[in-house]
Each structure stands twice: as structure tokens, then as C-alpha cells.
Amino acid sequence: MIIRLYQDVKVTRPKTQSDEQVLEAALRLIHEHGPEALTFERLAKSCGLSGATLVQRFGNKARLKQRTLLHAWDGLDDKTRTLATAVPRTPAGAIELLVALSQGYGGIESYAQGLLVLREDLRDPMLRARGAAWKTTLCNALAACFAGTPGSPQDIGLLMASHWQGSLLWWSFDPTIEVTIYVDNSLIRFVAAITTAAARKP
Questions:
Q1: Residue 168: band (very low, low, confident or very high) from pLDDT cuts 50, 70, 90
Q2: pLDDT at 202 > cutoff 70
Q3: Residue 106 maps to which CATH number?
Q4: Alpha-carbon span 56 to 78, nearest angstrom
Q5: Are 43 and 26 in contact (CB under 8 A)?
Q6: What does the record give under GO molecular function (predicted)?
Q7: b/e per residue 90-118 (b: at least 16 CB within 10 A)
């Protein structure tokens, strides 16, 4: 946490901030105000470093935005791997994993801001590649949770991840309950349908 000390109209700035700390501050700006809010001026006020120092480190606004979103992907990758290791290798564990990932979406305003961030990801080939790699990691983790479920579809990981993303979108149109409750209920019905169909196979 960055502490600012105000004395008269002068601000005591920290002399050093790691790139990770700066990128965390940049990510907060994006999530709170949208990608276009990320400027060197606003980031300087947020993290306490001078604009000149930030330009020296990150070069230009486009590079700063890319570095920030790559940092966000790093965090999501770490969270996904940690959750995948912690949940049981069962269909219920797959639900637990996706519900836990849904906690980061917050309320509808936060989700809407997240869609603006997704637009930035889709515009950048490097960021799209990170998204594709995360999809593979997530789908493999979900599929591992169905390894002991006879008859489950070969692409169950992708099917469940796709259902999860769809449930988030449908929730956003009518966010009358918490997103995690909505997702949990939706995924429970999905898994019940899959396992029932698998049990009926001859």
C-alpha cells in the first residue's frame, strides 16, 4: 500500500517503486476508470513516481498499457494454477475452480469495466496469445477433474469453460444475485446434465 504524506501542498514521493508495484497501480487505474484512463500523468499521481521516470521505464502509453495487461495475465495464470492444484479432481472441484475465478469479477460495474479490458486484449496479438494459452491451461485443469467420470465428453474442459463464460454474460444482463451464486447454480446444472448423459451411454 502506497502512503502519501501531505504537508501544505507538497507531496513526499517514494524514491523507488518496482515495476511490479507500478504495474499494480496501473492495473487499478484501468479497472476503476477504464483503459483510456491509463496515462503517465494519472499513473504518476497514483504511484508517486514522476512522469519522466515512468516514460523512461515504459517508453510510451501503448507499451505501458501492454505491460500492464501482460501483468494482469501473469496474475490470472498464477491464480488459475494455484486453484487447479488446490481443488479436488472431481466435477465438484471443477465447479469450485470456476466459482473461485468468478470472484474476481465483482459487481456489474466491475464486470463492465472488465469487458473494456477484454477489448484491449483482443486488439493486441501478444495479449490474444496469452488468452489462448490461458484457455488451454484452464481447459486442461477442468478436464482433469472429470478424469474419473466415465463417459464424459473428450472436450469436457472446453465445454465447461465455455458454459462458464456464457453464464457470466447472462448474469450481467440481470445481475440480481451475486455472480458467484449465479455461476455456481449454473455450473451445478451443467455438470448434472453432463454426468446424467454420460451415465445413459450404453
A1: very high
A2: no
A3: 1.10.357.10
A4: 28
A5: yes
A6: DNA-binding transcription factor activity; transcription cis-regulatory region binding
A7: bbebbbbbbbbbbeebeeeeebebbeebe
